[in-house]
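BACKBONE GEOMETRY TOKENS
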Amino acid sequence: MEILIISGLSGGGKSKAASFLEDIGFYIVDNMPAAMILKFAEFCAGGGGRYARVALVYDVRTADSFSELFSVLEKLKAMQNCVCRMLFLEAAPDTIIKRYKETRRRHPLRESTDSLEEAVAQERTLMEPVKERADLVIDTTRLSTGKLRQELLGIFGGEKEKGGMAVNVASFGFKYGLPLEADLVFDVRFMPNPFYIEDLRHQTGLDKPVADYVFSFPQTQDFLNRLRDLLAFTLPLYAEEGKTGLFIGVGCTGGHHRSVAVAHALAEYIRSLGYQTAEHHRDMERSV
């Protein structure tokens, strides 16, 4: 079992970090008092693997005394079959103030101070002992949302979360309309159409005779090679900017033959790059 305590300064990026970690399989609990963490960890340990990765957000709102938190951390690290770490997120005071002004949220210490600047400074002093006990510290001052996501995925993500982005490749027929969720659409209606060959008409692009026919033409091979180069270049950039999912549509006239064959080949290639890849053929089962 893996337990991650997410702490840090208000406005430092804890909520963003929690959402990114949730994307890669962490079970997130926000604002949990230290007194409950150990009990919750014991509950998760008996969950039969259901709660194998847990992230608990702990901040100044729950901090009556950090001594209890530190005691809990020591006990968690001593548990068998449990890896426990604490992540601390911070940012420069002027950055935090700017973020609060942009979101118009109220700093948790604002009521007990005379200004937002004083609240930020007071929290920084208050949370210093927690920062000193953290296993990992990330300064988000100059990190975009995408860069923060990449940083966390680099630390906590496995190979299956390459880039932290899932790719959905779908074939479709233009005569039935574009997929509304598509980010990228590729039109393969320029390819020779198996529909006009009697023996192939009632098969699909997943059938070998149709796929062999579609890929027997140089323009198909050239198109697929160029498309592979394009995606090998762009997919890491989409992931770096923080995109969690990318929908690629491949369309032909009816969505039975050419688009199915190309979408299938494309999905296999993207999967070979290490991305989570789903394949779907929207119109393949419609009558020819």
Summary: DSSP finds eleven helices and nine strands in the chain. The first strand starts at residue 2 and ends at 8. Residues 163-281 form one domain. Residues 115 and 206 are 65 Å apart (CA to CA).
